[in-house]
């Protein structure tokens, strides 16, 4: 089952807005070399909301090709339209992905019963495992622990990415859902403590910038060496904060551009480049971490 440091991979774009496949391949190889345990392809950090479905599917196809079976690939299949999410799930199931990550529908504010019906329909669309994603700061709707427990009864729903930052939710979920259900943190600032309290891994934005350190933190946490895990995380505390001074993935893309890891910091509208003071703040952090000169 999925465990450890999974990067919520950005989708690099050229200055003209096309997918930058050369940078995408280089990022995948860098993560494999750095010890990243798995890749989330075209999740919300990968700008899934603004990539057309054909492009979304093609980026996942390319990531699977570049990874060549060396690490698991979880494809982002979320949408606020159940029909669209089902279509993405069926199409990407043909690409040799290892599973799916599906976000709570955004904007339309479904009832808890609607969330259950939505995810059950997605889970029925493929035999591959699905991880639920709860991020109420972006979706408005908060998926309750009772809803997670109800969905965990479906054989294809195997885990939860919890981006609430509330560690009490992990304890609630572990009490409500038993067996091999996987608990991932989606909040980098509390990800280490999440794992030290029994979580299975992180699906991380910070791993885009510091993949080796995030992988080591997770490795030590899973081994029960909590002091060592906290030492790795302590170095990244300010990075966790600075990557979110503007809406994700604005700052991660700027950081990767300044690090020479992608050719352009381009984003899909309505996202735009960071303000000058934000650029300077993340560049100073990268300099302090020895990631740029």
UniProtKB/TrEMBL annotation:
Site entry (Part of a proton relay during catalysis), positions: 44, 107
Enzyme Commission number(s) of this protein: 4.3.3.7
Molecular function terms from GO: 4-hydroxy-tetrahydrodipicolinate synthase activity
Entry annotation: catalytic residues: 133 (proton donor/acceptor), 161 (schiff-base intermediate with substrate)
UniProt cross-references to InterPro entries, sorted A to Z: Aldolase_TIM, DapA, DapA-like, Schiff_base-form_aldolases_AS, Schiff_base-form_aldolases_CS
Sorted UniProt keywords: Amino-acid biosynthesis, Cytoplasm, Diaminopimelate biosynthesis, Lyase, Lysine biosynthesis, Schiff base
Positions bound to pyruvate: 45, 203
SUPFAM superfamilies the record matches: Aldolase
Reaction it catalyzes: L-aspartate 4-semialdehyde + pyruvate = (2S,4S)-4-hydroxy-2,3,4,5-tetrahydrodipicolinate + H2O + H(+)
Quaternary structure note: Homotetramer; dimer of dimers.
Purpose of the protein: Catalyzes the condensation of (S)-aspartate-beta-semialdehyde [(S)-ASA] and pyruvate to 4-hydroxy-tetrahydrodipicolinate (HTPA).
Protein name: 4-hydroxy-tetrahydrodipicolinate synthase
Organism: Glaciecola siphonariae
